[in-house]
Amino acid sequence: MRLLHTSDWHLGRSFHRVGLLDAQAAYLDHLVATVRAHEVDAVLVAGDVYDRAVPPLSAVELFDRALHRLAAEKVPTVMISGNHDSARRLGVGAGLIERAGIHLRTDPANCATPVVLSDAHGEVAFYGLPYLEPALVRDLLGASRARHEQVLAAAMDQVRADLATRPAGTRSVVLAHAFVAGGEPSDSERDITVGGVAAVPAGVFAGVDYVALGHLHGAQTVTERVRYSGSPLAYSFSEATHRKTMWLIDLGPAGEIAAERLDCPVPRPLARLRGTLAELLDDPALARHEGSWVEATLTDPVRPDDPMARLCARFPHTVSLVFAPERAPESEHLSYAQRLKGRDDRQIAEDFVAHVRGGSGPDGPERAVLRGAFDDVRVDQDVREVAR
């Protein structure tokens, strides 16, 4: 049976205030085309369909179109809710939608109720484990503690118990949305440590043929049978080195796994540039990034004038600007009081400017502003003294 494993669509999310709806629509076009081109037997979506619990209408409309197109292909789709989704909202109408071959698994009570599909070699049971918030599902699943490892272990115990009642040779696939130990996170995932340590061991999923994971945004292989598809688009600059893909999984007659990564369309590459403003503007080697989304880290000791506009003149898709001035080392032997000894208020203020700029003090006009500010304060103090 041929499976297409994807996750973490995050419909409705933007990238540094740049809307991604068109890129997400292009990805879903690519998904449907891939289903056709590779003769996929089932699509697996391992959570975080939306970016937030109450998604914008445009994201809901995009999801609705995707469901209709997948149903029209007559290829079953198994989908779970992630920690960004509202399980209740995503699961509305699941019973009716299931008649069209779209199987939404958003209720933790149904972890051990599989979607059963068949091929020439027999049945395959697909178990959908939506994101399990430990404090909310501990009692429902009979877990020993309200921790991620314990609630997932309890859910998997139910899966294995159900699988044991099925005909010999039944193959099994689990969809789960979790942070599994050995996975490499990025800055894009929402922290799920509330309710205990987030990471769970891959051994929790022992006894099934394939585990389609969601949550981490980089495609990765935890074990041969436990994999993250990653997100189809980059959602932070920490994903600049990611190759965005989906897993094409061939599940053999005895549960053998053959896996291939299929590339997703890239709306615009990411580039993280670092240097002084002059270096970034003048370096001919950076020409290849002029069409990229750019995060620029400026190391100028003094903040340049109008840096964003000047960067955008060369890199029009600069969306993030970070200042990290390279500073001369300060003496470690002088206390703060010793540094201030014998200096008046104006000199202390000028020294502070030099400190935050890495050694470059205020220029003439800036000194005039500081001098004027201190003069105004002194005049105000004098007026108050006279008033007393």
Automatic annotation (TrEMBL):
The keyword Cell wall biogenesis/degradation appears for this protein: no
Role summary: SbcCD cleaves DNA hairpin structures. These structures can inhibit DNA replication and are intermediates in certain DNA recombination reactions. The complex acts as a 3'->5' double strand exonuclease that can open hairpins. It also has a 5' single-strand endonuclease activity.
Annotated gene: sbcD
Upper lineage: Bacteria, Bacillati, Actinomycetota, Actinomycetes, Kitasatosporales
Alphabetical keyword list: DNA recombination, DNA replication, Endonuclease, Exonuclease, Hydrolase, Nuclease
Gene Ontology molecular function: 3'-5' exonuclease activity; endonuclease activity
InterPro entries assigned to the protein according to its UniProt record, in alphabetical order: Calcineurin-like_PHP (IPR004843), DNA_Repair-Maintenance_Comp (IPR050535), Metallo-depent_PP-like (IPR029052), Mre11_N (IPR041796), SbcD (IPR004593), SbcD_C (IPR026843)
Record NCBIfam families: sbcd (TIGR00619)
Domain Calcineurin-like phosphoesterase: 1-217
All copies of domain Nuclease SbcCD subunit D C-terminal, residue ranges: 267-355
Family: Belongs to the SbcD family.
Gene Ontology BP annotations: DNA recombination; DNA replication
Pfam families assigned to the protein according to its UniProt record, in alphabetical order: Metallophos, SbcD_C
Protein name: Nuclease SbcCD subunit D
Family matches, as Gene3D superfamilies: 3.60.21.10
Oligomer and partners: Heterodimer of SbcC and SbcD.
